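Backbones bend. To wit:
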Amino acid sequence: MKLSIGSIFKTIGVPTVTYVERNNGKHESELTNFLSIPGKVCLITGPSKTGKSTLYQKVLSTLKKEPLIVRCDSDMSVEDLWRKALEEVDFERIITKSNAGQVSISASAKAGASMGWAWLGKLIGEFSIGLTGAVTNTTVREHILSKPSAIHIIPVLKNLPYTLVIEDFHYLKEEVKSSLFQQWKSFIDNEVSVIVLGTTHHAIDLAYSNRDLIGRITHIEVGTWDIQDLNKIVVQGFDSLNLKLDQSLQDLIVSESVGLPLLTQLVCQRLFIDQKILEFDSKKNSTLNFKESDLLTSLSNVAKTDFGIFHDIYDIFATGFRKGARKYNTYELLLLAFTIDPVTFKLKRFEIDARFQELKNIEIPPAASINSTLGALSKLQKKNQFELLEWSTRQSTLYILEPSFLFYLRWRHEKQGTDPDKKYFEDFLHLFRIQKTLKAKRN
């Protein structure tokens, strides 16, 4: 039987064959326990692409619950948030899934002869939402969506197998976050639980600023993955195809995945795609062997295609504030420092100097130029409306905030092998040519 490579190494939705419960299922167990206590605000934070969405989707599926997802942006108001949540309510779909045993509807909801917007209107109380006369699905829906509030969404969450999930919470403006947390007091009073996702642990600071929520907020920090858990993704996927991957290649995949399960899935998938294999029949072919050169090409292809969005950002960093010739190529050198082994998300000031010394045929800028560039990073990023690097003066450390950007930096050029003398050839050559041009202009 032919197996789809895309369904095994799955990069969209919840994986089946290659789903791994990290840390022996610790996060799944925590979220399941938290959601079993009515009225909890379950805050899940961590870097992007570390599996926050996959975590709640897996748990809600196990609990026979349906996520009611709202994705936030910086222009969203609290009213916009409630409207988006209510627009996602699909009564017919819930009834169909309930009949199929995929979700579980409460007894009180089943008592409603015909679930829909009119049913919701009666549940809330027509007069309390300002309706008189004939109440139809259309009139109730239009009236509620014209000025939505928490009052309208709570009965849905309380009576139907929905769990409200607010993704990208960190994008909301501070005043919107504050107002939202104030309104969540009514969720707690009605014993309705909510899941909130954000990329930074600072999200919880604001939550605790509302004393009414203390003791009702639970926090799961989803950091980057351990090597052993990423390794399970590779093993489970190749085992399902009745294939064995050379251990050195397996080690390279997981180490270069920079702690992101999505990257492990993407690289494994790309190995097959680059060989023009979209489906695989293990009974007919169990001798497929990948070489190191195949993997190096696939790693580079993932960086250039799946994370090509970073190309323009790299150019902004490399250019810095000056558009013309510069005496030193300090910005680009700082990025290049992260391409040198071992893989790391942070470099102390002395480690930056040590890595610069490993670069061959490169004129190293003086300390003053390096310090000036580090100090200007925040201003450069704010000007161009992104934030991928952070220089901490207090800790004298340069951080990469987005793990996938680290992967892009390391694999934006295809490497010539894992030999240290050849591994960064393309980046060295690129900088060497630039600096030769700058010297010629200065002379």
About this structure: Residues 257 and 263 are 5 Å apart (CA to CA).
